[in-house]
Amino acid sequence: xxxxxxxxxxxxxxxxxxxxxxxxxxxxxxxxxxxxxxxxxxxxxxxxxxxxxxxxxxxxxxxxxxxxxxxx
Length: 72
Prior knowledge:
mainly beta
């Protein structure tokens, strides 16, 4: 089962440059556009808007690609 996250949770995910840490900004449950990228989120297939601590940029991620961060 995929983990549920809430606003403010610190999470990490893999990028081409290694592991990145960020903060959950909100759960996306409807299709939306972030900059020029279309996010096909729905109630059945939610995604999370995450802000990277390193770059400050926001991006949508599927729950399966995220895990709670162990870093403090």
